[in-house]
Amino acid sequence: MKIALIPGDGIGIEVIRETVKVLDVVTRQSGCSFEYREVLMGGRAIDETGVPLPQETIDVCKASDAVLLGAVGGPQWDTLPGHLRPEAGLLSLRKALEVFANLRPAVLFPQLKSASTLKEEVLGDGIDLMVIRELTGGLYFGEKKRVDTADGQKAWDTMVYSTHEIERIIKVAFQIARKRSGKVTLVDKANVLESSRLWREVATRLALENKDIAMDYMYVDNAAMQLVRNPRQFDVIVTENMFGDILSDEASMLTGSLGMLPSASIGAGKLGIYEPIHGSAPDIAGQDKANPLATVMSAAMMLRYSFDMENEAVMIENAVRKVLDQGYRTLDIMQPGMKAVGTQKMGELVCKALE
Ligand code: IPM
Ligand code: MG
Fold this sequence. Notes:
Elements: E1 2-8, H1 12-30, E2 35-38, H2 43-49, H3 55-62, E3 66-71, H4 86-96, E4 101-107, H5 120-123, E5 128-134, E6 144-149, E7 152-157, H6 163-178, E8 183-188, H7 194-209, E9 214-219, H8 220-229, E10 236-239, H9 241-254, E11 262-266, E12 272-276, H10 293-305, H11 310-325, E13 328-329, E14 339-340, H12 343-354
Parallel strand pairs: 1-2, 1-3, 3-12, 5-10, 8-9, 8-10, 13-14
Antiparallel strand pairs: 4-5, 4-11, 6-7, 11-12
Helix pairs in contact: 1-10, 1-12, 6-7, 8-9, 10-11, 11-12
The chain binds 3-isopropylmalic acid (IPM) and magnesium ion.
3-isopropylmalic acid binds next to α4.
């Protein structure tokens, strides 16, 4: 399997380093082999090549079986014009690889229950939901423009969706739901937005054709409220790009630990982009403080979705659980009575738990 590695900026570099060590243990145990090609994207790409996503990176990613990404961005690139910012590199890569479905599981590890900002009674015996965010359409990619007017300026972004784009993401949601409870909630704003009304029509039709799926519908404002009021009513949430961006951050906080959450971005084929949902955290970069577990679990998702290595994916996830059970914590999830460890040590502990 060929893996394109994009450590990126800030803590991305450290968490990718530890994740590769974990994958090395997996290769030793399963007899498979991974070939890595490291490429540039984001801030470092801007510094070294002048653009956030060099053509070489696109080519290498397209020729790989999966892309494993750390994080991009940092304050030194924040003043660049929009199309030259590190984030623009990430958006262009998603588009170039046509990874239209972004899977963002929000799982509360029982060991970390007290890290959540929600009351214990709201969390019940755990949170395990999956936000499926459309990733290559909508407001992020519609026509955008700014023009001068007599009294200042005018700017717009447009939310555009086609039947095809909606169908394919709803189908992904159904596939994922079948391996879970079979329940899918479409989140939209169909009381106001025409594009949302199209989403709802398409989803309703597909739900009729797939009787094993229990589909329900919720307006995005209500969904934002329900996520903190009663998160356990949700299993799979499917929604458009911008709503998914916002709701997945909200859902992640239910688990109390941004540093624990992986993500997968997949398309029609096997090629996917796997990345932690946390950012580059420039404030703690290079200090051995970052939590590598979100990236480690992103690698598990890579094995599951791009390489069909379900057993090995579960092995990694179990190893992470074991290390948490043993009481080891990085700074972001540290609690009284637990053992504080740095990035490298956490990586080593996962490797040991795997062996
Ligand atoms: C995310 C991030 C990105 C997004 C940014 C960095 C462009 O917030 O992956 O959720 O908005 O998609
Ligand atoms: Mg986001």
